[in-house]
Specification:
Elements (H helix, E strand, L loop, with lengths): L1 H16 L3 H7 L11 E4 L11 H11 L6 E7 L2 E6 L1 H15 L12 E6 L11 H19 L3 E8 L4 H14 L9 H17 L3 H14 L3 H25 L5 E4 L4 H13 L4 E3 L2 E5 L7 E5 L7 H15 L4 E7 L3 H13 L8 E6 L2 E3 L2 E2 L10 H19 L5 H21 L7 E3 L1 H4 L7 H18 L14 H11 L1 H11 L2 H21 L7 H24 L9
Parallel strand pairs: 4-5, 4-10, 5-6, 10-11, 12-14
Antiparallel strand pairs: 1-3, 2-3, 7-8, 8-9, 12-13
Helix pairs in contact: 1-2, 4-17, 4-20, 6-7, 6-8, 10-11, 13-14, 16-19, 16-20, 17-19, 17-20, 18-19, 19-20
């Protein structure tokens, strides 16, 4: 709504001084001091035929301007023209629109493009699913929800690393020390434990290197049927543990890719690039020389013919656009791989792949553990299963502090949702390129910028509506008397623009930060503006405002992948 007001101001000013509306819109700003209006037009950068003096220009605009409908008054302040929004007009229009559209408020018009978001953890089989993967899942899922809400046709994809050196090390150690024994119900944490042990042994015993290399070749080139069967059995078991993790997180993907199925296609494409002169042989390996683009050298195939990430990513890019008919591909991958993706996209461009310009990398920072980088090889990771159970136990303690009368089944259900809300919000509230220093205590707090605090705000609003039991009349007369009411309305007005920014910038943290600011605004309203005790138009107005808040916050949390609860 405020964006519409801004547009009306821009058009009115543009008409008054014969300028383009977009030029005026770029100059409009929101004053820090509320007493100076809701919008201000600084005239320093405007030059008219009348005068180069910004004070004279501001006066000229003020005299010629026809007041837009949503503006209550306009004031001159030296070189500024300040605009004060008609609060009741703005509030009534906003609330009626939210109550009419409900969870669709803020959604965008339907777009023609189909977008694939590839991320959702992209874990390697035979390893633990840890909180680094979890950050990827949260970011990918939120992006998919936001873009879908904004109007795009979205396909979600996961990409499992089920082949490579890490698998060869795991199998070698497993055969040597575990004698092929598989637990009845292994966890990803169990797979990760063996991988860590294998790495530590591998680093200390040089004689093991050739044995591991032999296993890798046998798997990739199919030279040992028994070994390949073991690889498939343990791979499927590892994938099953991931399925259980995704079920707990509450996330599904439309498409699943496997590295093992892309090697052959990637090798064929690599050889084709050599024939076309895009790639070349270099000491037995196949490379793409990108030095003139400032991107160094990208190796596409090892000297022994073995495939690499780049080999498979070539195949993956072609498959995405041809098989799934997408218009844009978004890769949600750690920031450490930013240089690699620049190399990959440039290689695709040189290969004549028209959609190379429609491939985008959304990088995200590390999740640190006590200020240090986690490492699967050294076993310095927090497995998701362990993290989730710990978070759930802490949530149970917090719930019982507040409400001891709840039965165990309800407590279990609520604690899972609170734990997930805490963890997801902690992963999303910062810009994706920032690192996160993992701190479970602060994440699970019911106060401050946390998931539980937002759920609490939603429950509080729901309780007001439940106690009131009032059906809002159609086209009732809005009556706003308190600044807290107006501040909450203005914050609700921002939601549409917030969604747009988050979708365009691939930035879920914009919605996460907005949700917290909205909840804070509601808390101030709640503390200062009684609802149920009021009567007449004031009661109707405040009930409608609580209802509007409930719809918008619930929608914002849904876009972050956070499920609401009804009790707390």
């Amino acid at each position: 709504m405020l964006e519409e007001v801004k547009k009306d101001i821009s058009e009115a000013v543009a008409k008054a001084i014969k300028r383009a509306p977009h030029e005026i819109a770029a100059l409009l700003e929101v004053p820090k001091d509320k007493n100076l209006g809701d919008f201000a037009l600084p005239c320093f950068k405007l030059k008219t035929e009348l005068s180069p003096d910004p004070i004279a220009i501001a006066k000229d605009i003020y005299l010629k301007l026809q007041k837009p409908r949503a503006i209550e008054k306009i004031q001159l302040a030296g070189p500024y023209v300040n605009f004060f929004v008609d609060k009741n007009y703005l509030a009534s229009k906003t609330i009626f629109e939210i109550l009419e559209l409900k969870e669709n408020f803020g959604s965008g018009s339907k777009k023609s493009e189909r977008v694939m978001i590839e991320g959702f953890g992209q874990p390697n089989t035979h390893k633990a699913f840890h909180i680094g993967h979890f950050r990827n899942v949260c970011l990918s899922d939120a992006l998919a929800r936001i873009l879908r809400f904004y109007g795009y046709d979205v396909l979600t994809a996961n990409y499992f690393g089920d082949i490579g050196m890490h698998v060869a090390k795991w199998l070698w150690f497993y055969l040597k020390f575990y004698k092929g024994k598989l637990p009845k119900s292994p966890t990803s944490e169990w797979f990760g434990k063996i991988y860590t042990e294998a790495n530590k042994f591998y680093e200390k015993h040089e004689e093991s290197h050739q044995e591991v290399s032999n296993i890798l070749n046998k798997i990739e080139f199919g030279k040992d049927a028994r070994l390949k069967a073991l690889w498939k059995k343990t791979r499927d078991s590892s994938l099953k543990t991931f399925s259980e993790v995704y079920k707990k997180i509450g996330v599904k993907t439309d498409v699943i890719f496997y590295e093992s199925k892309l090697s052959k296609i990637g090798k064929s494409l690599t050889k084709k690039l050599v024939k076309e002169g895009v790639a070349k042989l270099d000491q037995g390996a196949i490379i793409v020389d990108l030095k003139k683009y400032g991107l160094g050298v990208l190796v596409l195939l090892k000297s022994d013919g073995g495939a690499l990430y780049s080999t498979r990513d070539l195949a993956l890019a072609f498959q995405k656009f041809t098989k799934y008919k997408i218009d844009k591909s978004i890769y949600v991958v750690a920031a450490e791989q930013s240089h690699y993706f620049k190399q990959l996209f440039k290689t695709l461009e040189l290969a004549g792949f028209k959609q190379a310009k429609n491939c985008h990398h959304v990088p995200y920072g590390l999740v640190l553990l006590h200020g240090k980088k986690m490492a699967s090889r050294a076993g310095e990771v927090v497995a998701f299963e362990q993290l989730f159970e710990t978070a759930k136990k802490r949530a149970v303690q917090e719930i019982l502090k507040r409400n001891k009368s709840l039965n165990k089944k309800i407590v279990d259900n609520i604690s899972e949702k609170i734990a997930l809300a805490a963890l997801k919000f902690a992963m999303l509230k910062q810009s994706s390129d920032k690192t996160i220093d993992f701190d479970l205590n602060s994440m699970l707090s019911f106060e401050g910028e946390t998931g539980p605090y937002l759920l609490y705000s939603l429950v509080r609003a729901r309780n007001i509506l439940k106690k009131a039991r009032i059906k809002i009349k159609k086209n009732f007369v809005t009556k706003f008397e308190q600044s807290y009411e107006i501040d909450l309305v203005k914050k609700l007005c921002e939601f549409r623009e917030i969604v747009s920014k988050a979708a365009v910038q691939y930035a879920p943290h914009i919605i996460a930060n907005y949700a917290y600011d909205l909840a804070k605004c509601f808390s101030e309203f709640y503390e200062n503006c009684p609802v149920i005790k009021e009567k007449g138009d004031t009661l109707q107005t405040r009930i409608a405002l609580v209802q509007a808040f409930f719809y918008v916050l619930r929608t914002a949390l849904n876009l972050l992948g956070i499920e609401e609860i009804t009790k707390m």
